[in-house]
Every structure is written in structure tokens, then in C-alpha cells.
Amino acid sequence: MAAIMKMFKGKEKAPSTSDAIQGLRQQEEMLAKKQDFLEKKIHSEEDIIRKNVKSNKKLALSALKRKKRYEKQLQTNDGTLNTLEQQREALEAANVNTSVLETMNTAAKAIKKAHKDMDVDQVHDMMDEIAEQQEVAKEIGDAISNPTAFSSEFDDDELEAELEALELEAQTDEQAQLEKQLLDVTPISSLPDVPKTELPKSKAKPKKVKEEDEMAELAAWAS
To answer: Based on the structure, what is the number of domains in the chain?
Structure first.
């Protein structure tokens, strides 16, 4: 065993996990083919035994011995194949873990590089400054939108008093004009003469003519 370990130790350095996994898969394929071969040989020897167990016991005994050797080889082959499968699965898991760790390491370095020129206190100061500037911008916007800066040129009370004075003056002018119109009325000197001619009197229809007219009207209505 020591000689074998020394032989492997003297060889080149271990390959990568990917190469090792590929090599194990090739060995598994070879052992799987050997497994099929041994199983077929065992079935063949079983057929010889069944056919000659009564008629030719010597031939049957030789076939039985070969069958036992093949079964032993098959058992060894299965154990080796199982070991290779376990080793390959372990290497695959290790390869996945290595890839994950490398990715995490790269991400950690990237984060460290991103935070290299950053300081927590500086970040807090920057955020406070941003908040302060936002408050200043809000106050400026409120001041711009407030119209009181432009309406302070005149006093509201003075404007109200002047408006009342103009209204009173207008009422006084209207009253003066009305009084002037009343004083300028011209008196009537004389009334028109009453007409002396009599109005024409309507001539009444004779009673008989009136009755005939009514009867004619009634007959026209009844027809």
C-alpha cells in the first residue's frame, strides 16, 4: 500500500474537480459494461448447468465453477462501481460548493469595493443635507405661490373707505338730479274744450227683424 501511495504521490498534481468527475464517469461506464458482460456469462453458465446436470455432471460441475468465479467478479465489480459513484457524487457536491463559494467571494469583494469610499457618518450627513435642502425647496415654493408679496402695495381699509365715499357721492348726485327734474315741471295753463257735438245714436232694429234673424241663425245651427 505504501508503494502504491508513493507511486501516486510522485505523479503530477491533482486535476481539477471537473476533470476528476469526468474521469470517474468514464470508469463507471467501463465497469457498467463489465457488469453486463459478467451477468451474461453467469446466465450462460446457468444454462449449461441445467442442460447437463443429469447427463454430464463433469461438464455441469465445470460450468458451476465458472459461474462462481463470474459471480465473485461481478460482486467485486459492483462494489467498485458503487465506490466510484459515491466518490463522483461527493466531487460533484464539492464542485457545486466551490462554485457557490467563489461566487459569494466575488460578490463580497464587489460589495467591499463599492463601500470602499463610503463612511456611515458621511452617509448620514449627506441624508441630513438632502432633507434640509428639500425643506428649503418647499419653503421657496410656498413663498413663490403666496400672492401676499404683491398685494401689500395698497391698504385694504383705505381702499374700503374710498369705495364707500365714492358710493355716497354717487347717491348724492342722483338725489340732486331727481330734485332738479321735479322743480323744472311746467304747469298746465288750460284744459282742452269738451266737444259739443252729440255722439251718433245707434238705430235699434225692429223687433220682428230681430226675431227673424235669430230664427235663421237657429235653423242654420240645427242643419
So the answer is: 1
Query: Residue 68: which CATH number?
Result: 1.10.287.1060
- Is residue 63 within 8 Å of 45, Cβ to Cβ? yes
In a domain, 178, yes or no: no
pLDDT at 99: 86
Range of the domain at 64: 14-114
Residue 63: is it exposed, middle or buried by C-beta count within 10 angstroms (0-12/13-18/19+)? buried
What's the pTM value of the predicted model, to 2 decimals? 0.45
* Residue at 194 is within a domain: no
3-state helix, strand, coil in the chain (%, to 5): 80, 0, 20
Q: Which position has the grid cell 269738451?
A: 194
Sorted by sequence, the CB contacts under 8 Å of residue 63 that are 6+ apart come out as 45, 46, 48, 49, 52
